Each structure stands twice: as C-alpha cells, then as structure tokens.
C-alpha cells in the first residue's frame, strides 16, 4: 500500500506539472486564437479576389462597384497582365491553406465526438464550423468566377491545372 501511495503521489505531481505547463491558458483562448487566424486568412483571400477583379477590370479608378460600394483604385490596377496568373496562383494557395484550417477543425470536432462516447465533454454546436465552411465556399466561388472570367489571359496550360486544384478543394470539403 505504501508503494501505491508513493506512485500515486508521483503521478499526481506529474499530472499537475503537465496541466500547469500546457493548460496555462483556457481552451477558449486557443479556440479564439484559431478563429482569428482563420478569419484573417479569409479576409486576405477576399482581398486577393478583389485585387484580381481590379487587375482584370483595368485601371478603372474610383467609382461605384457592382454591389454599389465605392471601389478604391488598387495598387495593382495598372499592373502588367502577366501579374494576373501570379496573383491567381497566390490566391489559390491561400484558398488551399484556408481549406486545410477548416479540415483540421473538422477533424478535431470528429475526435471530440469520439471522445464524448467515453464521457469527455463535447460541444455539439456545429454553427461555427458551418459558418467557416460557408465562408470558404463563398470565397471559393468568387475566386472560381474570376478565374473563369480571366481564362483567356491564363492560357491553355495554366487553366486546367487551376481548375483541377479548385475541384480538389471543393471535393475535399464536401467529402469530409
């Protein structure tokens, strides 16, 4: 019994040390940090889509946009046409990175659901995850629309590769 008591004390001390080191911040802080990181990536992606549209539309200057908002001339508006493929490729990379964040969050949710079967706490609210997916798909379709509109400038070699990457993004989101 004495050996068991000593081992129990040692294990409780190790457990306290691990909790002190890893959990000095509440889980909600980590989740909030992840949400902010995703929303920043999504905003950056939306900005890229607007840059692509401004580059495609040419140096239109300032004026009312499609949605009635005021468009401010982008620094890339007077850029050369060869920058369009580069800008689109960067936007697709950012889209894929945002997709990876969503898929990671889905995987975490699935794991938490599995652990809930063993009695762990589980937050069943899918609204934040659904909002992430919907936001990402909305930007996906905006970017896809810009790519299709710029298909002539992209050429016969780059367009199929881009469309394949777009299909992969959407299919992985739907499948998972």
UniProtKB/TrEMBL annotation:
CDD domains in alphabetical order: STAT6_CCD
Keywords associated with the record: SH2 domain
GO biological process assignments: signal transduction
Domain of life: Eukaryota
Lineage of the species this protein comes from: Eukaryota, Metazoa, Chordata, Craniata, Vertebrata
Matches recorded under InterPro entries: STAT, STAT_TF_alpha, STAT_TF_CC
Ranges for domain STAT transcription factor all-alpha: 90-150
Pfam families noted in UniProt: STAT_alpha
Protein name: STAT6 protein
One annotated GO molecular function: DNA-binding transcription factor activity
């Amino acid at each position: 019994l004495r050996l068991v008591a000593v081992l129990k004390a040692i294990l409780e001390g190790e457990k306290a040390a691990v909790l002190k080191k890893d959990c000095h911040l509440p889980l909600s802080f980590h989740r909030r940090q992840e949400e902010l990181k995703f929303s920043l990536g999504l905003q950056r992606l939306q900005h890229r889509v607007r840059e692509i549209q401004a580059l495609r539309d040419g140096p239109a200057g300032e004026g009312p946009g499609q949605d009635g908002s005021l468009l401010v001339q982008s620094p890339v508006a007077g850029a050369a046409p060869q920058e369009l493929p580069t800008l689109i490729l960067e936007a697709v990379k950012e889209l894929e990175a945002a997709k990876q964040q969503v898929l990671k969050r889905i995987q975490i949710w699935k794991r938490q659901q599995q652990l809930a079967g063993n009695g762990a706490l589980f937050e069943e609210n899918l609204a934040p995850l659904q909002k992430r997916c919907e936001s990402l798909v909305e930007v996906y379709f905006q970017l896809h629309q810009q790519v299709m509109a710029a298909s002539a400038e992209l050429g016969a070699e780059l367009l199929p590769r881009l469309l394949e990457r777009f299909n992969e993004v959407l299919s992985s989101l739907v499948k998972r």
